[in-house]
Specification:
The complex is a heterodimer of chains A (250) and B (168).
Chain A (H helix, E strand, L loop, with lengths): L13 E12 L6 H10 L5 E4 L5 E5 L7 E3 L4 E4 L5 E6 L2 E6 L6 H16 L4 E16 L29 E7 L4 E12 L2 E18 L3 H21 L3 H8 L4
Antiparallel strand pairs in A: 1-7, 1-8, 2-5, 3-4, 5-6, 6-7, 8-11, 9-10, 10-11
Helix pairs in contact in A: 2-3
Chain B lengths: L1 H7 L18 E3 L14 H28 L5 H17 L8 E4 L5 E7 L2 E7 L4 E8 L5 E7 L6 H8 L4
Antiparallel strand pairs in B: 2-3, 3-4, 4-5, 5-6
Classes of the chains: A alpha+beta (250), B alpha+beta (168).
Chain lengths: 250, 168
Amino acid sequence: MTSINHPSYPFPTIQEVVCEVRFRLDKSWDASFYSEFLKKIEEQFPTFEPTAAPVILHINEQPGEAAGFSVPLVIRYKHSSRNLLLQLSENRIVVNALPAYPGWQQVSEDIRYAWRKLCEVVRPIEIERIGLRYINSIARSAEDEPLGRWLAPSDYVPPAIFQARREFAAQISKRLTDEDRITVKVFERTNPTNRFGDIVFDIDRIIEKNMAADESSLLENTTRLHNEVWNVFVSAKTDDLERLLQGEFL
Amino acid sequence: MILNAIKESPMPYMTSSGFHAATAKKYRVDSELPAISETIANNTEENRLLAILTAPSGTQKLHHYLEAAIKTRDVEAKTATMAMKVWRVMSTLSSNKLPVPDAGVCPDGQLLYTWSKSEHHFELEIFPSGLGEFFYLNRLTDEMWDCEYNIGDSIPDEAKEKLNLFSL
């Protein structure tokens, strides 16, 4: 899978890119993996910290089994010079790219790096799930500014929310195939640095199937996801948003 | 929804070390880890992350300001476009650690970027002709420095050093 030709915007609206890879090992998870992983990456990621972990809900698949929840240990590793984080937890690794968005080529290199280093510590026998999420944040410029200034109705941005001036939120979750799904959210969010608030355009594309654990397979799959995230974004982009991304004016 | 599910769960449980290694395969774990931008807490280190995460919003506010100034004919579109370009150059030079400047419009269509941090004050004035002028003032020592600059050229080393004073 090759990456389609995307323009590179000087002023991207991407607030965060999250790539989460879940995998299966040939042995049980061990807490020593966190420090072993640090040793592999500490030249670029010298600091780490445990994070306030979310509650993970476990849904029972067998009738009669109890559902439950757990609080996973998540260790966050910070890049020494770039706004880039890696997060490691049991059977999952996450790459978080923070502003300014460095472009897909760099993000895919970061995913490659994280996976390669992980594979020096553990031996994944299978990738079970890949999620690639692009969170865009657009600062509103006025109290009564319509959503339609920045986004246009599309397959994933429902026309109904364009009728609301304020307090809108929409989420479309779609299973594309047995193995592929997408969740797109558009909503208004308060921002302490912008009294008019922000519009969030959050695109989360997921593959859930048993995949080869090699680097090329992972990058092929993430590139495919990126192409599809891009298509969702561009299908809802207005001319005003294009100018904002380019730093241009009428 | 998660909270409700937990309340309704007949035997909720938690482990001290994380996931349930022995039973993990029995369960389908649906939740992704939240994005960093969704989990920012109010402490010093997280404030730095918050500043990074809100940087695009600050740049967008600058764009909105310049757009409004064009509409009121206080500034020409080409001057505003130059101002956005030079901001990008400076932001990139600082590895995205330079805060978005305060911006103002001057009477003859110039734009003024300013940064202020404790005793340090720094300005870039952008003229419609494409000329720029850097100015630095240390309010404690009265040290001053200025330098002309053609918008689009590389930023002078001394200006870079001054700008580093304002990095996050």
